[in-house]
Amino acid sequence: MTQNERYLSAKEIYAKYGVDTEAAIEKLSNISISMHCWQADDVKGFDTDGPLTGGIQTTGNYPGRARTPDELFADLDKALSLIPGNHKINVHANYAIFEEDGFVDRDKLEPRHFKRWVEFAKKHNCGLDFNPTIFSHPKANGLTLSHPDKAIRDFWVDHIIACIRISEYFANETGYPCVMNIWTGDGLKDVPADRMGPRARYADSIDRALACGYDRSKVYVTVESKVFGIGVEAYTVGSGEFSLAYAMTRGITPLMDNGHYHPTEVVSDKIPALLVFSDKIALHVTRPIRWDSDHVVCFDDETREMMKEIVRCDALDRVFIATDYFDASINRVAALVIGMRNVQKALLNALLTPNAELKDIQDAGNYTKMLMLQEEVKTLPLGDVWVEFCNRNNVCGCSCWYDEIMDYEKEVLAQRV
Ligand code: RNT
Ligand code: ZN
Predict the structure, then answer these.
(1) Residue 295 appears among annotated catalytic residues
(2) Choice from 37, 38, 56, 226 to test ligand 1 binding pocket (greatest atom count within 8 A of CB)
């Protein structure tokens, strides 16, 4: 059978379930995911030479890490060429590029330090998202925005304000709104004597930063919660309740990273809960194994379930989807491609699910049929529709993209010694 015959047959099979594959392909082509730049270089960035701190860690030493802006852009170019559709790039502040007049500290960053990111985005006709980098820095030692020392807090408040200006610049230059996510690893290794004080200071610091004023239709500020980090196991200032309450009371956007919860909690269930109350929500899609390990996203149950919730809730325009993981033990460009394609596959799976019918079945209380149908559709020919989607986006739909990555590894990555 040719691919076209396979697709036509899949189309017919899905039609029997009331699912329109053409509509699904069309919708998926318009979903843009924010691809994190930091998988390409193990979250090192360009502004400091120190270790990765903040309770996060990459493991592995696969050869070929991007060490310069040129190398990073080349890797992102390669990754994007193997991912169907048009996406956004998620940039961290430590990826500032100091050219003409040299280094400035994070509280003094300006849009001009991200000029090359804008050029990259324009070349790809894509948007940019942004993140203050409140870790891997001499002033990020345990506590930052919640630090008892006001001078430290002020430094980071100024950093966030600088990042808001850069986010506005991204939005203005690219024409796409910029999602700016605030995350810190603030916390304590051992049982605190004061849990509320640091949280009150954290809230006050972000309040002070947001008071700088910005266009809320261009910059969406998000706050990411966390449960614990390495070295800060006992107490996290920006916990789930703190971050959600903060975002909701300030009219900004809550961000959920699915590595940031207790192991039996699922973000898929939290998505519809927040959508009842928040116009927008944001996600970091990752794969936590036993802890917030940030493995490459797979086409696994929870990724599928999260994407199903977004689609079922008709919330594709209300959820900012970003990837966030860092694996240094495998080819880093392949890691980007695998994770992004898996999020897209999970979205396609969601779009090919007879959601309206399943809702009616649930409302009618027909739980036998609900279970039956949810299980039956799991084995419909999703793969044939996926290949069709890739072909229409001029990207390989099978595994042959891997050969291209291997050529790139030989010709480019292996030369980085
Ligand atoms: C850390 C958070 C955060 C970071 C990035 C680099 O646990 O997930 O989003 O991964 O800011
Ligand atoms: Zn995250």
Answers:
(1) no
(2) 56
Query: Burial level of 103, CB count in 10 A (0-12/13-18/19+)?
Result: exposed
CB of 38 within 8 A of CB of 45?
yes
Please provide the size of the chain in residues.
417
- Nearest ligand, measured from the Cα of 227: 1
Spatial separation of the C-alpha atoms in residues 62 and 40, rounded to whole Å: 11
For the stretch 68-113, pLDDT in tens is 999 999 999 999 999 999 999 999 999 999 987 799 999 999 999 9
Q: How confident is the model at residue 333 (pLDDT cuts 50, 70, 90)?
A: very high
Q: ∠ CA(222), CA(58), CA(187), 5° rounding? A: 50
If we measure between CA atoms, which residue out of 273, 239, 275, 272 comes closest to residue 257?
A: 239
pLDDT in tens, 186-215: 999 999 999 999 999 999 999 999 999 999
Q: Whose CA is nearest to atom 10 of ligand 1?
A: 324
